[in-house]
Amino acid sequence: MSTRVASPRYLTVTNAFAALRLLPMSDRYKDTEILALRLSGVKNPDLDR
Fold first, then answer.
1. Which of 18, 20, 30, 45 has the fewest Cβ atoms within 10 Å of its own Cβ atom?
2. Domain-wise residue ranges, the chain
3. What is the pTM of this model?
């Protein structure tokens, strides 16, 4: 079984779509999603404002 590493191009495209997804969201929805990620134990320094 081979291990595949995501290419930088794939990560760029994925992150671009994630950023586009946030544009139409209200601030309240964004705050709710960030809170849900924090409560689920996701460790991401970008979530700490």
1. 45
2. 25-49
3. 0.39
For residue 1, what are its two tokens? Answer: 């079984």
CA distance 24 to 28: 12
Residue 48 · residue 38 · CB < 8 Å? no
- pLDDT tens-place string over residues 1-49: 556 777 888 888 888 888 887 777 788 887 888 888 788 776 666 655 5
Cα–Cα separations (whole angstroms), residue 13 to 4, 5, 9, 33, 49: 17, 15, 6, 21, 25
The distance from CA 11 to its chain's CA centroid, rounded to whole angstroms, is 11
Q: Measure CA 14 to chain center.
A: 9
Per DSSP, the chain holds a count of helices (H) and strands (E) of 2, 0
